[in-house]
Write a structure and sequence with these properties.
This protein is α/β, with parallel strands linked by helices. It has helices at residues 2-15, 18-23, 41-51, 82-96, 112-115, 124-137, 141-149, 158-161, 195-204, 210-220, 243-256, 272-289, 317-329, 359-365, 370-375, 379-385; strands at residues 33-37, 56-62, 72-75, 103-108, 166-172, 235-241, 261-268, 297-303, 335-340, 352-355, 389-390, 401-407.
Length: 409
């Protein structure tokens, strides 16, 4: 069953390939510039360039070795670096040259918030520190991006506001709800959030940074221009891929292999431990009462949970989810794969982790105390010691998380 879950993960990624999704939504006329930003920038760009090989282009993607193309900028994720700043600067220069009778073809995928950075009111180092502090505190993606937008010259619709050209934007969503104003911090979409919202978030999580506070207060006082609230018909955003289609692809693959599967939700957010407990409760009900489903059954879910980091271990929300699930299920026998579609879960070096019916016994035999690893946010190390990680490398994909739990008969 473990092999089938791994096979299903890759089959779902293949069925929702960024290149294929872009090919279905190409514009009818040749654009004047192609700009691709995010973890799926390269396959999205490939689809566009096959159709428009003579169009100028720029791509911003995570660090990948051996890319000799000067029009491809590799930068850091999840914390921006100087290359992220260089990428944004180059893009702004190109967009400023476009006239109102020209056309920008914009390809956006998750990860763009860090890969594409133009600090405003703070230094790069300060923005790095604020981003890390919010992540460690457990801020969700909407909160994190609200702050990013108001400390940036490109986020929150400011990138497309910087050009006169008509903009066609295709987006792969890695956020719950598929809101264009949240994906990659809304670089192509009008922004409903404000300077006041951003300051409230910093205060809620007790993030102390005088430069950021002064900048946001200046914005609240009207000394700085707010992020655009309406971009008009000049900018068209289209969601071409989402977590839901990833889950449906996984469900279809399992059912083609004779496994009954059900999608619980593509919108699970909040605390990772609480989300794992919710799934464990459903599994226990299925095992004991055959409710709400009779086994055998595969439960699928997606979305994006958050981890409040208190330790210094290796892991990410998917590894942590898997370890809490194992903790709460105890001796109940299930198979599971909990993984991110981008192939990189936090700082774990892996996409996610497997559970098998004997996972707890193997952990006990290896003298691995679950509580110790959970307290140190070290779930990646736990599953590495059991040889139960899914290691794929960066997938060039980003449609959020894929959780598959199989309860045998």
């Amino acid at each position: 069953m473990r092999l089938l879950l791994e096979e299903t993960y890759f089959a779902a990624l293949q069925a929702t390939s960024p290149k294929v999704l872009v090919q279905k939504h190409l514009p009818e006329t040749m654009p004047d510039l192609i700009l691709a930003i995010g973890k799926a920038a390269l396959p999205m760009l490939e689809a566009a360039r096959e159709c428009f090989p003579d169009t100028a282009y720029l791509a911003v993607t995570p660090q990948i070795p051996d890319i000799p193309d000067p029009n491809v900028v590799t930068s850091n994720h999840p914390i921006p670096d100087w290359r992220s700043v260089e990428a944004a600067s180059r893009a702004l220069e190109l967009l400023a040259k476009l006239e109102d009778n020209q056309h920008l073809f914009l390809l956006i995928s998750g990860g763009g918030s860090a890969l594409f950075c133009a600090p405003w009111g703070v230094t790069l180092e300060e923005k790095q520190s604020i981003t890390q502090a919010l992540m460690r505190a457990g801020a969700d993606i909407t909160e994190l991006n609200t702050v990013r937008k108001h400390l940036s010259k490109v986020k929150g619709g400011q990138l497309v506001a910087a050009t006169k050209a008509r903009v066609t934007a295709l987006l792969l969503s890695d956020v719950v709800g598929d809101d264009p104003s949240i994906i990659a911090s809304g670089i192509s979409a009008a922004d409903p959030s404000t300077f006041a919202d951003a300051l409230a978030i910093l205060e809620r999580y007790e993030i102390q940074n005088e430069a950021a506070r002064a900048h946001l207060l200046a914005g609240i006082g009207g000394e700085l221009l707010e992020t655009p609230k309406d971009l008009g018909e000049r900018v068209q955003n289209t969601i071409i891929g989402s977590n839901r289609i990833l889950l449906e692809a996984a469900k279809n693959h399992l059912e083609q292999r004779g496994i009954r599967a059900v999608i619980l939700s593509d919108s699970i957010t909040g605390d990772t431990r609480a989300a794992a407990q919710f799934h464990a409760a459903i599994v226990r009900s299925i095992v004991v009462h055959h409710e709400p489903f009779a086994p055998p059954i595969a439960l699928l879910s997606g979305g994006e949970t958050t981890v409040q980091v208190r330790g210094h271990g290796k892991g990410g929300r998917n590894h942590e989810f898997a370890l809490w699930l194992l903790h709460d299920l105890g001796q109940r026998k299930v198979y599971a794969l909990i993984a991110g579609s981008d192939g990189m879960d936090g700082n774990s070096g892996a996409a996610g982790a497997f559970l098998e019916p004997n996972s707890l016994e193997r952990a006990m035999a290896a003298k691995l105390e679950l509580r110790d690893f959970l307290a140190n946010n070290d779930s990646g190390t736990f599953f590495s010691k059991l040889n139960d990680q899914l290691i794929t490398g960066a997938s060039g994909h980003n449609l959020n998380d894929l959780r598959m739990i199989f309860i045998p008969k």
